[in-house]
Amino acid sequence: MTQAQSTQTVKRPLWAGRTLALIGIVLAAFNLRTAVTSIPPLFDVVGGELGFGNGFTSVLGMMPTAAFAVFGFSTPIIARRFGLEVTAIAAMVLAAGGQFGRVLVDSPSVFLVFSVVSLAGMGAGNVVLPPLVKRYFPDRIGGLSAMYLVILQFGTMLPALVTVPIANAVGWKLSLASWGVIAVAAVVPWLGPAFAQRKGNRAGTLVERSRPDDGTASVSAASGAAPADGDAMPVRQPRGRVWRSPIAIGLTLMFGSTSLNTYALFTWLPKIVVDAGRSAEFGGAMLSLFSGLGLVAGLLMPIVATRVRHPYPFVWACIAFFVAGYLGLWLAPGHGTVFWVILAGLGPSTFPMSLTLVNVRTRTASGSAALSGFMQGIGYALACLGPLLFGLVHEATGSWTAPFGTLGLSLVMLAVGGYFACRPHYLEDTWHAKDPVRV
């Protein structure tokens, strides 16, 4: 029996009582990577004007995962104190402010500071979106996960594709700042749910619920929150230490290895292509293609994660795609480049699988938030090594051979982590219920 078959949640109309939450999830998802993929195609232009080289480029490439790691740990604490909705608003404000601020300076160090501010907002958004999906759409976890992950990938792909043409037309500063406007728009839908959530908390009407059999969760509040199912049972907040769960460790390794490889290519793929004799525009197009393959994965992997009881064979398929793409980019980067990028771009399909499993492997929104923060905090810390090591090894050896070998070795983590993450158990059943939720 599949997980979908075992679920007894009655589906409600998608828009019923949760329209603002749906719009907010879509807009927030689009903004989670715009500050990351809008800058690599402009490294040469921005570096020439601000005066930084390959070493500073490596640091910029490491910053997304570092910021995501720090705020992966801290966001669950903030969300427990102020609520998921208020945290989502703060995340989008930071994302917008950082993107506007970094185009107003002429110092590499200050540019880096504002980049970190923007990435901090996106890191917080990474963590709160899965539990927001579980809170407002417990009856549609697979579909909503697929939707927001596809939007996230579209927001990853589009900046890489159009940033250079926009910069050629209006300058690199306006090109980078334009993505902050969408982050401002993402604040608006959450104002209503945040007010309702705070009002519900003051009135003492907020109750988290969980199904013992299928792990779906919902909340009831004064307004703006998903109403609970009729047969859902109120439960206490889950208690335990996340790091004691093999599910949490497995998901962290799986997510961390995927992100390590993905962000290494986000940073260095355009340069690999340019070094093979192609143009900077083609390098940007290849980065966009690599990112765009996430659209396919975002559509398929949430369905796999919610319907296949033990999806571990799909992890091995992703490892095979990574290896084949790396071999092609290493041995023949100037020939069949599109094909090699397609293969490498299918490898990160374990990214949407990991994010979906955060909800599939938990019973409550609180458990989802705790697991999301732990997985992304440590996972992105591991991912920091990707762009940094790839660049340092390339600089030390003068070739791309050793860097690709380093990425290949990191796939061992993906194989081991995927085994534990894909086993059909729930987080709340695998930790020791002695202490409050913490990472």
From TrEMBL:
Q: What is the top-level taxon of the source organism?
A: Bacteria
GO MF, one term, reads: transmembrane transporter activity
Leader sequence range is none
User: Which keywords does UniProt give here?
Assistant: Membrane, Transmembrane, Transmembrane helix
Chain segments annotated as transmembrane: 20-43, 55-74, 86-105, 111-133, 145-170, 176-196, 246-266, 286-305, 312-332, 338-358, 370-390, 402-422
Annotated spans, Disordered: 203-232
Q: Where is the composition biased (Low complexity)?
A: 215-232
The name of this protein is CP family cyanate transporter-like MFS transporter
Organism whose genome encodes this protein: Spelaeicoccus albus
